[in-house]
Write a structure and sequence with these properties.
The chain is α/β, with parallel strands linked by helices. Helices cover 32% and strands 23% of the residues. It has a six-stranded mixed β-sheet, sandwiched between helices. The structure holds adenosine-5'-triphosphate (ATP). This is Urea ABC transporter ATP-binding protein UrtD.
């Protein structure tokens, strides 16, 4: 896929003297489906907060040829960068269609958006189809299942014509079937978008990641394909809780074929 990629250099975020993101470099190419994994407190959410303008940071973040750091949140959103949070933020009283309409409705009046209309804008129809919500379009969002609300939120980003989606634990609390459906949705979406997923669910990561970056203590510990990251002894050490042990202490060599499944947490 052509288009914009995300290029991060020497990104640092400090909270009252504590460095939560500590010199991160990342290159996320257009059309990637990148998973950001790492133990609790590794700095994953803070990194996404920095990219989307929610926290102050130093270094450089570029999306295509545009600089993001220092720009206000709304400006970054208008550049085509959308994110979801761990809890879906949809309008529960409104229907699926109305939620999508409002998200798509920059420049249109509220009453125009809420009025029952004969036609559905192309981008809304496409988002309904992509997210599998076409048959549920007249259902209040509050009556949707947990997974469906997350898909609606992704649809609300799609109708805003975002180019980069940053998703924070999109499958948390989902059933197995919902996770599978979400993974397939993200694969469809990444055909013409760049997608970054913060995730703790290792099975989900193994099934759907195109590339993986492992964060630990604010730094990139490892990067590559799922297989490369799983085979990295540093990653196994961190997830097995041995990274902080004194270097002088004798430890068994890490079994390099150990799946990252041992790391499941969340
Ligand atoms: N606003 C803040 N003020 C002070 N410290 C913060 C703030 N936000 C995050 N931190 C700290 O920064 C570190 C990184 O947090 P962050 O939430 O980015 O980690 P994470 O990798 O997303 O973790 P998790 O997987 O648990 O969500 C943590 O030690 C956290 O306590």
């Amino acid at each position: 896929m052509s288009g914009e990629g995300l290029t991060i250099r020497d990104l640092k975020v400090t909270f009252d003297g504590f460095t939560a993101v500590d010199g991160v470099d990342l290159d996320i190419h257009p059309g990637d489906l990148r998973f950001l994994i790492g133990p609790n407190g590794a700095g994953k959410t803070t990194l996404v907060d920095a990219v989307t303008g929610l926290v102050k940071a130093t270094g450089s973040v570029r999306f295509g040829d545009q600089d993001l750091l220092g720009r206000p949140v709304q400006r970054i959103a208008r550049m085509g960068i959308g994110r979801t949070f761990q809890t879906a933020t949809v309008f529960e009283q409104l229907t699926v269609l109305q939620n999508l309409d409002i998200a798509a409705g920059a420049g249109r009046g509220v009453w125009t958006m809420l009025r029952r209309r004969k036609g559905i804008p192309d981008e809304v129809a496409k988002a309904l189809e992509t997210t599998g919500l076409t048959d549920l379009r007249d259902r209040p969002a509050g009556a949707l299942a947990h997974g469906q609300k997350q898909w609606l939120e992704i649809g609300m980003l799609l109708v805003q014509d975002v180019k980069l989606l940053l998703l924070d634990e999109p499958v948390a609390g989902m059933s197995h079937d919902e996770r599978e459906a979400t993974g397939e949705l993200l694969q469809r979406v990444s055909a013409d978008h760049t997608v970054v997923v913060i995730e703790h669910d290792m099975d989900f990561m193994r099934s759907f990641a195109r590339s993986v970056s492992v964060l630990h203590a604010g730094k990139v510990l490892s990067e590559g394909t799922v297989a490369e990251v799983q085979a990295d002894a540093k990653v196994q050490d961190v997830y097995l809780g041995r990274a902080s042990e004194p270097e002088t202490e004798e430890v068994e060599p890490a079994p390099v074929t150990m799946p990252v499944a041992v790391a499941e947490e969340a």
